[in-house]
Amino acid sequence: MITTLPNLLTLSRIAVIPILVWLFFLDGAVPRWIALGFFTLAGITDFFDGYLARVRGQYSALGKFLDPVADKILIAAVILMLVAFDRISGLTVLPAVIILIREILVSGLREFLANLHVGVPVSRLAKWKTTIQMFALGFLIVGDASPDWIPAVLIGDIGVWLAAGLTLITGYDYMQAGLRRMLAEEGEHRSEGKEKPEQGPRE
Questions:
Q1: What is the CATH number of the domain that holds 93?
Q2: Domain containing 62: what range?
């Protein structure tokens, strides 16, 4: 059911996206800190929706669909806004593009494997990637509004590069596993085709 607490927490991550986008258009330090607050809360819900689903046994097909979608569109929206407002610029745009491409590829892979009733478990390294990514984007959301003794932009840029490196590693692992499953599926179809008796021409 959509009204379960885990699903509501997942939906809250989607609901917060328009607020974050709107805050980017406001000038001053306060909107940046408010945006960081909303982004942080969204990141916290990413942990608790899965935790509560396991503890309460409130698994659902809707939750399995919404959880990765909410994560990806939240990250994509923040990255796009950071690039649009020059808080990600120069060479740092490259790791941002890598992160977005990886998310699209993995989403497509998950959809394909789901049709084969094959799950794609999240690896420990992928969880680290997500954590570093969230921290990096949080620093970049605040950017120059941070205190002078906190090099937020530098920390954010380094974090994005590190997350992109982990993105390449985890993305390669996922794609390799997916390709093996695709080839195995293709082999099964060919075997089934060979087993079918050939039909002669009708007289």
A1: 1.20.120.1760
A2: 5-191
